[in-house]
Amino acid sequence: MPEDDRDVETIPSTAEAVAKLRRLADALESGRPFRIQIAGERFRVPARARFSVEHERGDGEEEVELQLRWSIDDSEQATGEADDVV
User: Fold this and answer.
1) Would you write out the chain's pLDDT as a tens digit for each of its 86 residues?
2) Three-state SS at 59
3) What is the pTM of this model?
4) H helix or E strand, kind and range, residue 51
5) Where in the numbering of this chain does the Amphi-Trp domain appear (predicted)?
6) Which of 2, 24, 44, 75 is the most exposed place for a label (fewest CB within 10 A)?
């Protein structure tokens, strides 16, 4: 993997997950960019990030993934507004 690549998974407590999802929903609903910290790294998610929901089934398990996807160029552009922190 090149130095910039990253693939991590965290398992927050239920209370932490609920709080993070509420803040994320508020940021998405308001159409504003936000900053989020995952596994010790904080980064910016632009307002125009694409949101998707995936469902996977196999090997006796099911999984639902909520994903936000954007280009690195989008996340680095300044908006002139303070980002919400999620």
Assistant:
1) 456 788 999 999 999 999 989 988 999 899 999 898 899 999 999 999 999 999 999 999 999 999 999 998 876 664 444 555 55
2) coil
3) 0.70
4) strand 50-58
5) 9-80
6) 2
